[in-house]
């Protein structure tokens, strides 16, 4: 465990929160330009803070790095305890990067309550980074639950016509799912002799019956967050009603909190139960991959289609985690990172079209390439990445998970591979109806191609998608040691 000499993680967490709170306190709709400028400075500065984490991370080291720890509430032995390893490293810069994209995307679109919009996203960014860094159980829970508040406000205030229903459904699903997790955290606190240290919980000798109860307690929170079938129904509603920035953060980052929770809590704390219940988890994951992929095929709303494709792609993540081999687990992690880039880009593209035509219905489009060639090129790239085209980031995670699945069981690998066919079907079907063909109507004929701001925003995401697709080594190398250590811990516990 490497103690940090400079509080880089605290800076990554609290800098965006500080900027967000400052904007909320002093920002005004009378000077929206200043608010936008401050939000951009805050988000870019927060992203730059993550660079030393990437540069100085030792991929060969075991245990946590950049550790910060001091007493928070001494009476109950609660600590402000932060650290990252290969499982969590890349989610910190990913969160900060996506926040920059969200701020840029809202530059000309959000005209009312600009300070509140920008402030909410900056605060949300810091809270989500806190989830990936927290090593104290109660601190994790505080960050995990606190993310609900800004997103609830973002959907409820800046969302569509049915925004209040979607916001309440989102909040109730995710909040109620987390209550059992709080009970599990308190149980582990007393079982460990009064410690909220998550890493200490990994070493607790727990009987199978207790592990199963803890596994289901964690499952309630993390399955809803991923979301896994059948507790996924809140996500399409939330995506459809959320503003573009809300959909981007929801898909690119918030869904990853659930996947990360499985690696930090479920597998290492309840390893025997994880093995025992792996059949159930694999089955639910395959249902998400295949059934939800079929559901995506019949959608008429672009946002709903991408929302359902997100559920299918996250099914790959949980499938990889519960196969228990290093290739599949690395594939699940790579899929989460790639999905952050690709799904964020897809929702931003839909937002670009919506800003011009105020419609998300596929039938209202057609022939967009004739009027928006630069946009069309980027949209096709992101759609192909969504389908898992080799050379894009979308291929890396899916390939590794399928490879690991085939190694585990040929037929599970075969079923998982059908996702590539379904992904290509709904992604290319979307491209055909929206982008290609003759100009469909006068509204499409009036479309204007990307401006400099939009092109820069989508161009940066395109670079990220292609770079990860062509050279995934920095991502997979960083997680190799931590994944190996996790699987070794789970396997040893199973033998015991």
In short:
By secondary structure, the protein is mainly α. It has helices at 8-26, 32-49, 51-56, 91-105, 114-133, 137-146, 148-158, 163-191, 198-201, 208-225, 234-241, 244-269, 271-276, 278-297, 302-321, 326-357, 373-386, 393-408, 410-434, 442-445, 452-470, 473-495; strands at residues 65-73, 78-84.
Write structural notes for this entry.
By secondary structure, the chain is mostly helical. It contains 22 helices and two strands. It has helices at residues 8-26, 32-49, 51-56, 91-105, 114-133, 137-146, 148-158, 163-191, 198-201, 208-225, 234-241, 244-269, 271-276, 278-297, 302-321, 326-357, 373-386, 393-408, 410-434, 442-445, 452-470, 473-495, and strands at 65-73, 78-84. A hairpin with a 4-residue loop joins strand 1 (65-73) and strand 2. Helix 11 packs across helix 15. The radius of gyration is 22 Å and the shape is globular. It starts with 7 loop residues before the first helix and ends with a helix. The mean pLDDT is 87.
């Amino acid at each position: 465990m490497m103690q940090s000499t400079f509080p880089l993680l605290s800076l990554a967490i609290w800098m965006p929160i500080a900027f967000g709170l400052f904007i909320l306190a002093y920002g005004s709709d009378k000077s929206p330009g200043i608010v936008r400028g401050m939000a951009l400075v805050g988000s870019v500065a927060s992203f730059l803070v993550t660079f030393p984490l990437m540069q100085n991370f030792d991929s060969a080291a075991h245990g946590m790095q950049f550790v910060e720890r001091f007493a928070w509430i001494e009476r109950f032995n609660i600590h402000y305890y932060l650290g990252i390893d290969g499982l969590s490293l890349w989610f910190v810069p990913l969160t900060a990067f996506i926040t920059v994209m969200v701020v840029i995307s809202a530059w000309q679109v959000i005209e009312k309550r600009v300070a509140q919009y920008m402030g909410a996203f900056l605060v949300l960014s810091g809270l989500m980074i806190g989830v990936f860094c927290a090593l104290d159980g109660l601190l994790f829970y505080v960050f995990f639950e606190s993310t609900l508040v800004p997103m609830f406000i973002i959907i409820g205030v800046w969302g569509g016509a049915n925004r209040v229903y979607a916001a309440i459904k989102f909040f109730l699903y995710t909040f109620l799912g987390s209550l059992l997790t709080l009970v599990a955290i308190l149980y582990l606190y007393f079982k460990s002799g009064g410690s909220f240290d998550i890493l200490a919980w990994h070493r607790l000798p727990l009987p199978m019956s207790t592990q199963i109860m803890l596994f289901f307690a964690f499952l309630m929170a993390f399955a809803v967050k991923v979301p896994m079938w059948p507790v996924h129904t809140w996500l399409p509603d939330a995506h459809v009603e959320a503003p573009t920035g809300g959909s981007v953060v929801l898909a690119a980052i918030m869904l990853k909190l659930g996947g990360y929770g499985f690696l930090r809590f479920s597998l290492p704390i309840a390893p025997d139960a994880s093995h025992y219940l792996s059949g159930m988890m694999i089955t639910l994951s395959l249902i998400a991959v295949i059934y939800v992929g079929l559901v995506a095929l019949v959608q008429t709303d672009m946002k709903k289609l991408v929302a359902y494709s997100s559920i299918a792609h996250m099914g790959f993540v949980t499938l990889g985690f519960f196969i228990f081999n290093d290739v599949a687990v690395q594939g699940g992690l790579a899929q989460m990172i790639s999905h952050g880039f690709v799904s964020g880009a897809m929702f931003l593209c839909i937002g670009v079209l919506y800003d011009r035509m105020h419609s998300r219905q596929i039938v209202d489009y057609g022939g967009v390439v004739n009027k928006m060639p630069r946009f069309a090129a980027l949209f096709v790239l992101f759609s192909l990445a969504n389908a898992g085209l080799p050379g894009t980031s979308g291929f890396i995670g899916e390939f590794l998970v399928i490879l690991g699945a085939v190694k585990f069981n040929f037929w599970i690998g075969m079923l998982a591979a059908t996702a590539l066919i379904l992904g290509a079907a709904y992604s290319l079907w979307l491209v055909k109806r929206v982008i290609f063909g003759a100009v469909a109507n006068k509204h499409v004929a009036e479309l204007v191609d990307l401006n400099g701001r939009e092109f820069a925003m989508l161009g940066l995401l395109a670079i990220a998608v292609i770079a990860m697709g062509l050279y995934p080594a920095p991502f997979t190398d960083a997680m190799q040691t931590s994944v190996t250590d996790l699987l070794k811990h789970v396997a040893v516990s199973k033998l015991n």
